[in-house]
Amino acid sequence: TGKLSKHLAFQARDELMLHDAAVLCLDFSRDGELLASGSQDGTVKVWKLTAGQCLRRFPKAHEEGITCLAFTRDATQIVSASFDGTARLLGLRSGKALREFRGHTSYINDVLFTPDGGRLVTASSDGTVRVWDTKSAECSVVIKPPQQVQTVNAAVCSIALWPPDTEQLVVCTKAPKIYLVTLTGQVTRTFDVGGAGVDFIHCTVSPLGEWLYGATDDRQLQCISSASGTVAQALPIGEKDVIGCVHHPFRNVIATWSMDGLLKLWVP
Predict the structure, then answer these.
(1) For residue 257, what are the contacts with CB-CB under 8 A and spacing of at least 6?
(2) Chain center to CA of 79
(3) Between the CA atoms of 112, 114, 118 and 124, what dihedral angle is there, to the nearest 10 degrees?
(4) Of the four listed, 49, 102, 227, 267, which is most buried by Cβ atoms within 10 Å?
């Protein structure tokens, strides 16, 4: 219905999970019990969803706003990334920053863990994807996706693990192409579907990898068959710029959100 849920006790009391500054990103733990939120003032909070209770607060986790978050598989740690160009591993038990991943020269736009938790992958506006060892915080691989204009490094807007082979990434740059790239940096496939003068802003993948969904700067959601590499349909997202898109973890539903303040759910 689009209405604010009142199902939980704290919601029925009109209580909210609040930050002191604008919330820029969210992430759920794998079991759905915890929600992490990052705000413009560099604060990270971790909430118990059923109670609306803040379990852990990291004030000034970064000097600048939080751009993205990701829980570890066991939800004992969370990685935060920021406009300051760094990522930090935060311990939920200790309440402290455990490690810092430093090397990007611009904003970090997306972050994820490999399934075994041994590697962290970050994507940045400096035009690179970096693969890090989570224990040593050392960068093992720097991936530079192909650039459309040689003198300009197109921002890497989003990354996702490729479901048929999680040693590969779906890499979305601010360009008309989406790339399939191994974690060692080899481009194995190119989806050249953006069209002349149209760049991708964000990309998400269906749970089994049959479909890629790319949000473009002409405010459309392109539904791309991974088998054929062609666009099956393009859906109009809104009247203002697109911010992002995400696929439900197991249902055939995609969410898009845009600068007109609208969150839309799609069944393609």
Answers:
(1) 242, 243, 244, 245, 263, 264
(2) 12
(3) -40
(4) 49
Does pTM surpass 0.90?
A: yes
Compute the distance between CA of residue 198 and CA of residue 56 in angstroms, rounded to an integer. Answer: 42
pLDDT tens by residue, 2-21 = 777 788 888 888 888 889 99
Written as six digits, the tokens of 72 are: 């570890």
Tokens of 134: 């989570």
Question: Phi then psi for 168, rounded to 5 degrees?
Answer: -125, 155
Evaluate whether 20 touches 43 at the Cβ level (below 8 Å): yes
88 in Cβ contact with 80 (< 8 Å) = yes
Identify the CA nearest to 157 among candidates 243, 61, 41, 241.
243
Phi and psi at 43, nearest 5°, equal: -90, 140
Q: Quick one: tokens of 23?
A: 């919330």
The residues, any chain, with a CB within 8 Å of residue 93's CB and separated by 6 or more, are 76
Both structure tokens of 183 = 């974690």
The token duo for 141 is: 């691989």
List, for residues 212-265, the tens digit of each pLDDT value: 999 999 999 999 999 999 999 999 988 888 899 999 998 999 999 998 888 899
pLDDT digits (tens, 9 = 90+) for 95-153: 999 999 999 999 999 999 999 999 999 999 999 999 999 999 999 999 999 876 655 67
